[in-house]
Amino acid sequence: MSDTTPAAETAAPHRYTAELAAEIERRWQDHWDEHETFAAANPSGELDQRPDLVARPKKFIMDMFPYPSGAGLHVGHPLGYIATDVFARHQRMTGHNVLHTLGFDAFGLPAEQYAVQTGTHPRVSTEANIVTMKAQLRRLGLGHDRRRSFATIDPEYYRWTQWIFLQIFNSWYDPDAGRARPIEELVRQFEDGVRPTPGDRPWSALTGPERADILSEYRLAYAAQSPVNWCPGLGTVLANEEVTAEGRSERGNFPVFKANLRQWKMRITAYADRLLADLDALDWPEAIKLQQRNWIGRSEGARVDFPVPGADRPVTVFTTRPDTLFGATYMVLAPEHDLVDAIVPDAWPEDAHPVWTGGHATPAEAVAAYRKQAASKSDVERQAEAKVKTGVFTGAYAVNPVTDKPVPVFIADYVLMGYGTGAIMAVPAHDSRDFAFARAFELPMRCVVEPTDGRGTDPETWDDAFASYDARIIGSARADISLDGLGVVEAKAAITAWLEERGLGEGTVNYRLRDWLFSRQRYWGEPFPIVYDEEGTAHAVPDEQLPVELPEVDDYSPRTFDPDDADTSPETPLSRNADWVTVELDLGDGNGVRTYRRETNTMPNWAGSCWYELRYLDPHNSEQLVAPDAEAYWMGPREGQPAGGVDLYVGGAEHAVLHLLYSRFWHKVLYDLGHVSSYEPFHKLYNQGMIQAFVYRDARGIAVPAAEVEERDGAYFYQDQRVTRVLGKMGKSLKNAVTPDEICAEYGADTLRLYEMAMGPLDVSRPWDTRAVVGQYRLLQRLWRNVVDEATGEVTVVDTEPDEATLRALHKAIDGVTADMAGLRFNTAIAKITELNNHLTRTSPGAVPRSVAEPLVLLIAPLAPHIAEELWSRLGHTGSLAHEDFPVADPALVQDETVTCVVQIKGKVKARLEVSPTVSDADLEAAALADPAVVAALGGAAVRKVIVRAPKLVNIVV
């Protein structure tokens, strides 16, 4: 670190220090706020004050929504925010109208849990956290358009979240049109008889609840009884994505069980094909696209019906291998399957194998016990390749439709309701999980795909199943069809056609994607704009009565239970607020004022983040979700961006599925209904890496304060006790967090910004090292000295022309930094700026030419904006440099004046020539053959061939 002794400060009172940096930074941050320096202009409306900006090309740059934590920021949090700020500042300086702002995703479980623990209302603690976070982000010099900021807890914001929910609720997906349509159009089809009702009863003859039930089968937002993840310890249900691989809640680490509850869901599955296909139009990391494709999980196959004697309907399975249907020797249903209770007999069949019954007296007892066991496992656990397969016989048999033979029906936890139909036909000879299950339960196996590895066709002699798509079908014939000798593809087509002809099945496409569970039994979330009449029918609250505001309550904790007690059910905090739940309303449906009951679940915290990019465009519009011209200007399709969307969206890869998939779904519904012109929300996605930190643990494995650990001879000690060190996340619980406030106080915000950008490539995780921060601090001190005299405070630049070497160094830096900025390679941009600054320190100390100093200040301005603004001002310019033109390189000065050409004879270097970068092959050959060293090396030998690779290589063959 630089000398900061009193003597040094007296000798250099105008040195760039942390104190001076803090004064400069505060002053320029105030200037930016006062002059709305970073305000982006809309084409019309309240934010259209700058027509000169609207005439420029636009650039919409976004960070993923931050959650305002009470712990505040550590230095790992701002990595992406600083990066987008650097890019946004550069885009302004290259002539763009830039929209860059930041709001707060403020509903959710953390604030509610904190409220329950402390008695502080979640709005109070959340708003206090937002104030703290805004102050921390402002101190970093982030150039946000503050007029466009908001929080999801603002009623004027969630009024539109509720409005979007109602758009989805009042829509259905028309597969013929391939898009969402208003539910009124579906109702007209029922009224006109164009679309028959179940049972073909006239629409006019149906009761209100009957009509509601029918429409619920089509609505994109609907309530249904379904298996959900119930967490008694939290008192709420969770989406699959909120449950860990160990079957526990992400928040609180409580056990999660399967339960059947009535919940609101979103019919995202209707959009599965479009969500897949439209990925091709997006500039996203391939790894993220792959995760979305895998999550959607499209697979082609057939649905096959297996009749169950005595049941009113068959067991329907989805299989990707209908060609193996002749080899199905048993069936397995998910424990939650709704057909299980209907097929379980009162007593075991006489031929029930003892190992099938699990030692239970009756099938009902066996099923109940196994269901309880399965409910304690997560979907991930159930799908894991466990060595021991578990399950139990239901006591019922189904009939294989091609062999006409009975096959026993089991339940087992490796079959999920979340995939296919929740039932499988088991072909143990050709599926490893089925093979293991068949061995465990002594079930028959039948080979119907001829092995190509010489193992023979008797599965009883095999160690595992034979699974192949490149083999012939055998043992699969009956009087009216034979698959024998066919390949897999041909056999699939043949058996599917046979099934369809007889009404026993059909070819179909299946998806892993399930409809999105949209209910939470919490207080701190958006209320549903739904009320129920006395018959229990759901009604939408009219638009003019939005928002349905969250009531102020004293008791906002859900009812929680013994974490291990699966036999419980939710009780929501809102249900205890009788004055809010029961309401007199006129819904405008001609029925006048009636008494209704409000929905007492709340929306998940994902709701507010599904559409926030649209609110940034037009944040004060009280009449529309977003003005059409604002949406078209900022997000509409254009050349190179056929789907439209945000130009650059930066955030962590952990949101690869949940947030991104949900946002895409909402956006597509809005597009179908004509509310937006873009059909994707985010055109370019960039995942920044993580700033990591060393975690130090004592002998008990408990983290100790990293700042108090000493290194001695390669070992680490805390209070004279040796501790271990491992690289991990940064966080308060790991006692290794460093706050940006600490670094800003010691070095200044510009130094912090430079260090975080210089640590390495933006998309790579990197370790934090406070000791290394000083390197960027010294860069800024050298930059300051190249413009300002530390003793007098006077500007020292001169108006003389730079020499050619300096001129070339400048334009090479401009060229390199420009390319690096566009490619988000900020670490290499800083290296080039450092190289130019060091060149000036060596060659022009105290007398840097103005024509070099000013471009240098502009080059570093996006990265270190405060010191750049200050130096720009001291160089005689008024106002901010935020919209100054970024320097442009002269191509003639970017090229080296000369390059070194190597001359080889028999592969050995004999000479080096300094030549023009544009030298021709002929001239370079002549120069090489005339060089005295080459002539001497040839010694009169005949030259057979000269190979020229201008301007850097000549190879002479003798």
Description:
It is a single chain. It is globular and about 100 Å long. Helix content is 33%, strand content 17%. The strands form nine sheets. Strands 24, 25, 26, 27, 28 and 29 form a six-stranded mixed β-sheet that branches. It folds into five domains: 186 residues, Isoleucyl-tRNA Synthetase, Domain 1 (Orthogonal Bundle), CATH 1.10.730; 188 residues, HUPs (Rossmann fold, 3-Layer(aba) Sandwich); 212 residues, Isoleucyl-tRNA Synthetase, domain 2 (Alpha-Beta Complex); 38 residues, no CATH class; 61 residues, Ubiquitin-like (UB roll) (Roll). The longest helix has 19 residues. It is of the alpha+beta class and 958 residues long. The protein contains 31 helices and 33 strands.
List keywords for this structure.
alpha+beta, six-stranded mixed beta sheet, 958 residues, globular, Isoleucyl-tRNA Synthetase, domain 2, four-stranded parallel beta sheet, single chain, 17% strand, Rossmann fold, 31 helices, Isoleucyl-tRNA Synthetase, Domain 1
